[in-house]
Design goal:
- The chain is of the alpha/beta class.
- Helix content is 39%, strand content 18%.
- It has one domain.
- The strands form 2 sheets. Strands 1-7-8-2-4 form a 5-stranded mixed beta sheet. A 3-stranded mixed beta sheet has the order 3-6-5, with helices on one face.
- α5 runs antiparallel to α6, α5 crosses α7 and α7 runs antiparallel to α8.
- The mean pLDDT is 89.
Length: 205
């Protein structure tokens, strides 16, 4: 993973979870703020990404692809992020916590090879230099959810596809391309895609 920050769109989270997601990575400030250890980049997937795009749900697990460009060891960074849960209070006054899912891996679900070209950078007023937090695009998050395809995943996909800037034709094209080189049960994933498309067109009709 290597993303050029100036070449991707940005979004400033306006929910408690969204702001906390960025703050979650502030623990890396002692490592990266000086610039001596290079640059840290992370792309968030899963329920947190769904929330950033739709604000429809939250997630306690942070599914993220982590990359360290420089002298910091990736395994040490993952360990540092996993030491403590990040506790915050949501808009309803309920205490929530974010925890890194150390088992997350982008190869576990279908994912288009060009997903890095569509990421969105999360920004806050106090962001730390050299710590760059991104979220996968709505299209790419939806594609990954074709893998597990539980009831919540299906709801998330439909919520993402209903976003005004999402084109269903582009989603289908990218999904079929991702499935074509997915290491897994291609027939099952194609079946899941057909279910999604049928549900989408039924809701539109």
């Amino acid at each position: 993973m290597h993303i050029e920050p100036g070449k991707c769109p940005t979004i400033e989270p306006d929910t408690a979870l969204g702001r906390s997601l960025v703050a979650f990575f502030d623990v890396l400030e002692p490592v990266y703020a000086s610039g001596e250890k290079g640059i840290f980049q992370v792309i968030v997937f899963g329920g947190c990404a769904v929330h950033i795009h739709t604000q429809a749900r939250g997630s306690a697990d942070v599914d993220a692809e982590v990359a360290s460009h420089g002298y910091a060891d990736k395994s040490e960074i993952v360990a540092l992020l996993g030491e403590d849960a990040y506790v915050f209070t949501d808009e309803e006054g309920v205490t929530q916590m974010l925890e890194l899912d150390a088992s997350f891996n982008t190869t576990l679900a279908p994912l288009h090879e060009d997903y890095e070209d569509r990421v969105i950078r999360l920004v806050t007023q106090g962001r730390i230099p050299n710590v760059e937090v991104y979220v996968a695009s709505a299209l790419d998050v939806a594609i990954t959810k074709l893998g597990r395809f539980g009831a919540r995943d299906q709801q998330d996909i439909q919520a993402l596809l209903q976003l005004p800037h999402v084109d269903i034709g582009e989603f289908e094209r990218l999904a079929r391309e991702a499935i074509s080189y997915y290491v897994g049960d291609e027939t099952r994933i194609l079946g899941n895609l057909n279910v999604v498309l049928d549900d989408y067109h039924c809701s539109e009709g």
